[in-house]
Amino acid sequence: MYNFQFYMPTKVLFGAGQLNNLHLEQMPGKKALIVTSNGQSTKKYGYLAAVEQELEQAGVAHVLFDEIRPNPTRDNVMDASRKARENGCDFVVALGGGSVMDAGKCIALMMVNDGDLWDYAFSAKGGHKPFGHPGAPIVAITTSAGTGSEVDMFSVISNDELEEKTGVFDISMFPTISVVDSDLMMSVPPKFTAYQGMDAFFHAAESVINTKEHPMGEMFALKAIELIAQNLPVAYKDGSNKEARANMALANSLAGFYMLCTSQHTMEHVMGSYHSDLAHGAGLIMISHEYFDFFAERKAAEEPMKKMARAMGVKNPESGKDFIKALDALIEAVGCKDLKMSDAGITREEIGKWPKHIREVLGGDITADPLPLSDEDYLGIYERSFR
């Protein structure tokens, strides 16, 4: 018999144009800190102005913090939480992709908790303290289809000084309201459409091979894989395709509803700890063939991989290798076949020090892989992935 818990307290407004209905919802506070990235897209395409208008229609005052990095940092969180307290903000509106939503969740925690974020981090150099107070409420408005952060309680934050990139989570980090409006995703460039979409794919694929998987999680994950296989190549080639964008938005949230990541995500978090400019999805793609093929070669996840292959359109798959072929074809279809670690500034020499950190950095559950991996196994996957 299966034993699992499913808790989903977030109200999701899903569909094209749903941002226009935000003002009709009961806002969780009177003054919001709007959190966005340090880029220009939310301003350029009018998303920020639209959110400000929705808040004003709802009678909510707001202050802007627009300094979140692509790999959000502990400094981002502390600077923003300080600004929130100084301006009397009582909730967070996170407008952006996964980085912004992840940072927004931690900002909401540090608005109401003392000390430094790393006092509470579960990483090797973190303080491991429990949060004294639940975080302030969060409204998440996603502008990308990748992380699923709009429907979960997890975040990933980097500490440049300590060279750590780790997960931070608390039950209070579930957003109160999430807006998943595919109209806000139409402007994502092809490269990042691919990176973000493949991140969502790996959330789902890691969930399916996870030894702690169960029917609820598998249901969400296999549907997400099916939608991504069908729609990501379309959205990559034609970002104006509304149906493909909407289906990718759905796949992203489905994968986030019950995300059970394995050590592939932890391996990438180690990579990102040393290379803060490495896009998370790109890092996952770089190691994905060798990671999944490690288990396919050893026939360690045959049935889960055949299920994923069928979801990707393979008729009558015979082994896990059919999934590997479908994965490689999907990566090629979204222009990522030639991604190289060396192009991201990674050297072959530095890879040797990565495996020991996999047991120190939080990303996925390294005990849930189809087979237990040794440091030598991790090193082999990294080295075979290096180009």
* Through-space gap between termini: 44 Å
Strand count, sense and barrel status of the largest sheet are: 6 strands, parallel
Tell me the strand percentage band: 5-15%
Within the largest sheet, what's the order of strands? Answer: 1-8-5-4-2-3
Task: Summarize the helix and strand pattern as letters.
Answer: EEHHEHEHEEEEHHHHHHHH
Uncertain runs are none
| Mean residue pLDDT | 96
Shape: globular
Total DSSP helices? 12
Number of strands: 8
Structural class: alpha/beta
Helix content: 40-55%
Radius of gyration: 20 Å
Structural overview:
This protein is of the alpha/beta class and 387 residues long. It is built from twelve helices and eight strands. The strands form two sheets. The chain has a six-stranded parallel sheet, sandwiched between helices. Strands 6-7 form a two-stranded antiparallel ribbon. The protein is globular and about 60 Å long.
